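> agent: user asked for a holo structure of the chain below bound to fe (ii) ion. Plan: (1) validate sequence alphabet, (2) canonicalize SMILES, (3) run complex prediction with ligand conditioning, (4) return tokens. Step 1... ok. Step 2... ok. Step 3 dispatched.
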Amino acid sequence: MKRSNALAQLSRDHHRGLVVARQLNGATRATASAARDAFLAFWEQEGREHFRVEEDVLFPAFARHSSPADEAVVRVLVDNVDLRRRAADLSAETLWPPEEPRKLGGRLHAHIRHEERVLFPLIEAALPENELIALAAAVELAHQQRP
Ligand SMILES: [Fe+2]
């Protein structure tokens, strides 16, 4: 199913996130530092704001037609806390345990796949066309306001 305009911008962020997740998953001792830098650059440039746009705009729009405690949303919110925690630790730590690139890469990959395969199709099915159009405009505006 083709992604609606409302979610297409967020899906583009997801695509870049998957590239970083692959880099983390494939990291060796020699490439772990580059993978860490790639994740932190993605986090600072897009990831942090991406979470904010989803939480400020997308999930409340879905909650009008579902429950704020919908399990597909709850899973994403829990992931967001975990990924924020890992990003904060990564920014502060000089040592990176050798198993962490794979843990972070796996978590990021599973998070994005869940949104793309489960949550986004639920949102597209739940919202009427006029609300999807309004959502696209709200997401676009929120993206433009990125610092
Ligand atoms: Fe997302």
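> agent: step 4 complete. Summary for user: The chain is about 80% helix and 0% strand. Residues 10, 14, 50, 54, 115 surround fe (ii) ion (CB under 6 Å).
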